[in-house]
Design a protein that fits this description.
295 residues, alpha/beta, OB fold (Dihydrolipoamide Acetyltransferase, E2P), binds zinc ion, 2 domains, 35% strand, 15 strands, 15-stranded mixed β-sheet
Amino acid sequence: MDNWSTKKLIIENARPDGESLVIPYIKIKGTGPKIAIVGTQHGDEFFSIAIINKFLKSNFSTDADLTIFPLANPSAFNISNRRSPIDNQDMNRNWSGKKEGTLTSRMCYQIFRIIKNCDYVLDLHNANKNIRDAPQLRVHESNREKTQNLCKYLGIDFFINHSDVRHTLVEEMQKLNKTAVCIEIGEGKRIDSFYLNKGVQIIKKFILYATDPTVARTKTKHIDEETIKKIHAPKSGIFIPNEKFLGEKTKIMGTFINIADLKDEKITLKKDHKVLSLCVGGVVSKGDLIARVVE
Ligand SMILES: [Zn+2]
């Protein structure tokens, strides 16, 4: 991409010491559809920043008008945490924000003022520490029909219906009748080249779709969030994930090494499941999340 300029959104009196907070954003002017791309609402999901950076360096040309917030929540990012330490609020439960609210709510308000004029919103997220997400698209019931062609076109296999989360960016944009989706990809704190390239491709395809929605013709069947099963470590030890099956169907989640006798044990489900998220491996304790699967 060329012709991009960097801008700053200043949140006055943001910190306890009275200092302001700066939220950087990027503007690429165009005559085509207005698109917003948002990353790192959760401060520990900075893989999205690497994806956006790689997208900006690619040679992709578009007439779309792009507004990009690679780091929506610098307050949480500075301590590498999901929430801002100042008010302990989850940004993605605070949209569309309040002009005179707590810091997180004010960040939402100021960002929303800029992106509410966009017709398309791509909100990028990543999995928690030590978990990798196969790319998955999340929408709310109200916007499902509108976006069911989009999932397959973006090259994403999992189309998930958000159940009870409220006041997300996607939900608030949908209320304004915009096309907004949330995408989970990779692990928040780890830069991984496979999902880095996949993430760049998803951004490019999202822009192409916004330019001409008829390019996406295949509907994807949705998955209800309640049907996703969480698999927990049955004991403590070293977990070696069956990583080539992330995003695929398998019975085997990985292998466990028992520290006491160094014996192996396969972690196997009764039947095949599609693996949505998988632990990256290493030391785990009994009860830790090792996978999220769906039949
Ligand atoms: Zn997130």
